[in-house]
């Protein structure tokens, strides 16, 4: 049986709906994305007669995208072809009430204060023009005379149109024969989001941590959902893209959580709350979704002494003798662990904030830093910057700088330094000395990172410590420091063009 919606005049359309509300059957379900939108699915009980059937659904959110609405028979026995629909999401406000009361006479309360004495009088006025949304002042008739502006606080005897209390979808459905079934309604809405938070707890001594993951759902949609089935999508979803389930499972070695299950969902990950829950409007709700104990981690100390350089076009400053000489004394503290089953994890971890705590000698947990992780699949390494070391100090200074065959300008056509008439290719030699001091009571390893930003052709000369090449323009010196030890690194970078 084909079912379609026929257009008509709005007045007739609204008149039908005022007497034909639709029932709502089973519990709603939500799929919330961490990009401030959700997909809502609900059930509308349809009892269609031959001809035109007005249907009203008042459970929509205030941020529904009307063009995303799908109304269908999930059994496939009845075809619902939506040709036209209407959506009203008017908020209840004074201006809206005035607009709905145009042509009616209501009372206005006029309050005056004189020498501490307050008088209240009621004035009857007919609303000729509400001025709602048209950039015009209200026009009110009082005692047969017209006046601009309101003569007092409007007192509305009743609600002219109860449909403005909730956002409402309206349809006129035409059926060629009687049909009674539970239609499935789904739509995309804004005003809903979720995010993940992780708490990592370290013991008083050591690097083996416990992890707890929470999801926080935030409902600002304007509607409440009673006993809803809720799913969460993690991933960078193109909102215009149609998605389908592709199967697969997340796996992992973390302790199972009965509140939330996780599996692959197309190119994303789907988290399902096993229990139906009520999500009220303007409510935040937290649910634990991950728990793991005995996760091995490591503390890393990174000294990137030139990291304070401003983010500028380095080619412009290749030939600037001063560029790259500013240094920092801060040694970064990093916490690193592998998201694998062998390390008691192996979960698809959605992006979110990570907070680190360490237990004190009295058993209390003290906050030691936080950062944000991106979506992290299993078997990847997580490295978090948590702050700067108090008892580790670094210094970086340039000790020598030489240029050969440079005139100090850059050829705009090639971006390369312009050589002089002297024979031989342009070259540059730059020397640095890095000093590290360890004021801790235990030995540490500090990774000294240096950026060879001058050019892609380089060679390290006069090196006083072993280094490893990280990428085409980055090297790293692993440096062991005993308690209260000071160590120095010196090297010269030779560049040629």
Give your account of this protein's structure:
There is one protein chain. By secondary structure, this protein is mainly beta. It has four domains: 2-30 and 39-89 and 167-190, no CATH class; 94-162, no CATH class; 193-295, no CATH class; 296-496, no CATH class. The protein has two helices and 33 strands. It has helices spanning 10-17, 94-100, and strands at 2-5, 23-24, 29-33, 37-48, 51-57, 70-72, 79-81, 86-88, 105-114, 117-129, 139-142, 145-148, 153-155, 168-175, 179-190, 192-202, 208-219, 225-234, 260-265, 268-273, 277-279, 283-303, 332-338, 352-359, 365-373, 381-388, 392-404, 427-438, 444-451, 458-461, 468-471, 474-481, 486-496. The strands form five sheets. Strands 16, 17, 22, 23, 24, 25, 26, 29, 31 and 32 form a ten-stranded mixed sheet that branches. Strands 2, 3, 4, 6, 15, 18, 19, 20 and 21 form a nine-stranded mixed sheet that branches. Strands 1, 5, 7, 8 and 14 form a five-stranded mixed sheet that branches. It is elongated. The relative contact order is 0.12.
Tell me briefly what this model is.
By secondary structure, the protein is mostly beta strands. The chain has 2 helices and 33 strands. β3 (29-33) and β4 form a beta hairpin.
How is the topology of this model organized?
Elements (H helix, E strand, L loop, with lengths): L1 E4 L4 H8 L5 E2 L4 E5 L3 E12 L2 E7 L12 E3 L6 E3 L4 E3 L5 H7 L4 E10 L2 E13 L9 E4 L2 E4 L4 E3 L12 E8 L3 E12 L1 E11 L5 E12 L5 E10 L25 E6 L2 E6 L3 E3 L3 E21 L28 E7 L13 E8 L5 E9 L7 E8 L3 E13 L22 E12 L5 E8 L6 E4 L6 E4 L2 E8 L4 E11 L1
Parallel strand pairs: 1-7, 3-18, 16-24, 22-29
Antiparallel strand pairs: 1-14, 2-4, 3-4, 4-15, 5-14, 6-15, 8-14, 9-10, 9-13, 10-11, 11-12, 16-17, 17-22, 18-20, 18-21, 19-20, 22-23, 23-26, 24-25, 27-28, 28-33, 29-32, 30-33, 31-32
């Amino acid at each position: 049986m084909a079912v379609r919606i026929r257009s008509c005049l709005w007045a007739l359309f609204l008149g039908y709906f005022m007497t034909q509300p639709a029932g709502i059957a089973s519990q709603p379900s939500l799929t919330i994305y961490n990009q401030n939108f959700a997909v809502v699915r609900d059930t509308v009980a349809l009892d269609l007669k031959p001809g035109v059937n007005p249907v009203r659904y008042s459970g929509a959110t205030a941020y529904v995208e009307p063009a995303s609405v799908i109304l269908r028979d999930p059994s496939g026995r009845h075809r619902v072809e939506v040709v036209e629909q209407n959506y009203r999401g008017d908020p209840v406000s004074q201006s809206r009430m005035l607009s709905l009361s145009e042509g009616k006479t209501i009372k206005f309360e006029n309050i005056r204060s004189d020498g501490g004495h307050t008088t209240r009088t009621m004035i009857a006025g007919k609303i000729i023009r509400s001025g709602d949304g048209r950039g015009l002042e209200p026009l009110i008739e009082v005692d047969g005379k017209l006046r601009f502006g309101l003569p007092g606080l409007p007192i509305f005897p009743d609600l002219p149109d109860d449909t403005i209390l909730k956002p409402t979808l309206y349809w006129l459905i035409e059926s060629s024969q009687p049909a009674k079934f539970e239609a499935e309604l789904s739509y995309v809405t804004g005003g809903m989001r979720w995010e993940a938070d992780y708490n990592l707890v370290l013991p008083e001594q050591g690097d083996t941590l416990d992890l707890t993951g929470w999801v926080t759902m935030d409902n600002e949609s304007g509607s409440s959902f009673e006993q809803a089935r809720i799913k969460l999508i993690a991933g960078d979803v193109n909102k215009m893209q149609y998605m389908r389930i592709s199967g697969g499972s997340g796996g992992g070695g973390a302790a199972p959580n009965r509140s939330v299950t996780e599996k692959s969902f197309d190119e994303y990950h789907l988290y399902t709350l096993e229990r139906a829950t009520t999500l009220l409007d303007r409510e935040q709700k937290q649910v634990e979704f991950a728990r793991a104990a005995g996760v091995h981690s490591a503390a890393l100390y990174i000294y990137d002494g030139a990291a304070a350089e401003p983010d500028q076009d380095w080619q412009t400053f290749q030939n600037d003798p001063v560029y790259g000489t500013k240094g920092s004394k801060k040694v970064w503290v990093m916490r690193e662990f592998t998201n694998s089953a062998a390390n008691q994890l192996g979960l698809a971890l959605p992006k979110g904030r990570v907070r680190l705590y360490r237990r004190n000698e009295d058993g209390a947990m003290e906050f030691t830093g936080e950062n944000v992780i991106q979506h992290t699949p299993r078997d990847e390494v997580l490295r978090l910057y948590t702050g700067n070391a108090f008892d580790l100090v670094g210094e970086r200074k340039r000790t020598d700088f030489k240029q050969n065959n440079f005139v100090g300008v850059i050829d705009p056509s090639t971006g390369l330094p312009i050589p002089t008439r002297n024979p031989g290719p342009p070259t540059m030699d730059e020397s640095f000395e890095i000093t590290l001091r360890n004021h801790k009571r235990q030995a540490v390893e500090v990774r000294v990172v240096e950026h060879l930003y001058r050019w892609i052709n380089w060679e390290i000369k006069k090196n006083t410590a072993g280094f490893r090449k990280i990428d085409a323009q980055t090297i790293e010196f692993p440096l062991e420091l005993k308690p209260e030890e000071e160590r120095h690194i010196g090297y010269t970078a030779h560049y040629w063009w």
